[in-house]
Amino acid sequence: MKKSGRPGKNDENRSCKDLILKATTDLIVEIGADAVTVRKVIEKADVSTGTFYHYFADKNDLMMAFVREESFDGFALQTPIRDVAGRQTELYMHLINRYQALGKDFMKRFYTTDNRALSAYLDEEDGRFADGTIMLRSERELELCAAQGYLIASADLHRIAMDVCTIVKGCVFEWCLTRERVEIQETLSRILRLYFDSLMFEPISF
C-alpha cells in the first residue's frame, strides 16, 4: 500500500475518482465485492492512500458510490398511480436490486448499523431529502398520488416517505437475519399495503 501523501503515477490525473471506481468494479468482477478491500483498490488503481481517502471515507463509502451513481429520477414506474403501496414497492426494489447486484454476502455485511455512509444516505438533512436520492423520489411519488386523490388530504407526505424508508430498512434487515428465507419484495409489498390502507380514501385490493 502506498503511504499517505506519496502519490502514485495516476494521482495527478483529473479522473482519480474514476480510476478508483473502475478498479473497484474490476475487483468486484474478479473476486466479489465482499473480498474487496481499500488496500486492494489502492493497489489496482495505482493511487496513494491519501488520494483514496480524499474521495472516500472507507470501503462502505466507496460502495455507496455504486448506489448513488444513478439518480432515482431517471426512470418511469410501471405501477398505476392508484396503487400507492405497489408504486413505492417498485421504486424501492430498484435500490434493493442495486444492493443485491453487489452480492448476497456483501449485502449482509454492508447493511449494518455500523455503516455510516448508508445511514447518512437513508436519512434527511435539515428537514428535507437530498437531490437524487430514493427518498426524495418516494416523496414526489406520494405527492403525485395525493394530487390525484389517492391519499387523504391531511397526510404528512414527508413523514410518510420517512416511514416507508424505515419499513424498507426493516425488511432488508430481516432478510439478512433470516439468511434469505424472507422474500424481500413480497414482504415489503404486504407491509406497505397494510400501512397505506389507513391513508387512502378507498383501500384497494389486489
Q: Distance between termini?
A: 56 Å
The biggest beta sheet is recorded as: none
Low-confidence stretches: 1-7
Give me the strand/helix succession. Answer: HHHHHHHHHH
DSSP helix count?
10
Mean pLDDT: 84
**What is the molecular shape?**
elongated
Radius of gyration: 20 Å
Q: Give the total of beta strands.
A: 0
Write the layout of secondary structure elements.
Elements lengths: L15 H16 L6 H8 L3 H7 L3 H10 L15 H18 L2 H7 L5 H6 L12 H14 L9 H21 L6 H14 L9
Can you tell me about this structure?
By secondary structure, the protein is mainly α. The protein has two domains: 16-56, Homeodomain-like (Arc Repressor Mutant, subunit A, Orthogonal Bundle), CATH 1.10.10; 84-197, no CATH class. Helix content is 59%, strand content 0%. It has ten helices and no strands. It has helices at 16-31, 38-45, 49-55, 59-68, 84-101, 104-110, 116-121, 134-147, 157-177, 184-197. The protein is elongated, with a radius of gyration of 20 Å. The relative contact order is 0.11. Residues 1-7 have low confidence and may be disordered.
Short recap of the structure:
The protein is an all-alpha fold and 206 residues long. It has helices spanning 16-31, 38-45, 49-55, 59-68, 84-101, 104-110, 116-121, 134-147, 157-177, 184-197.
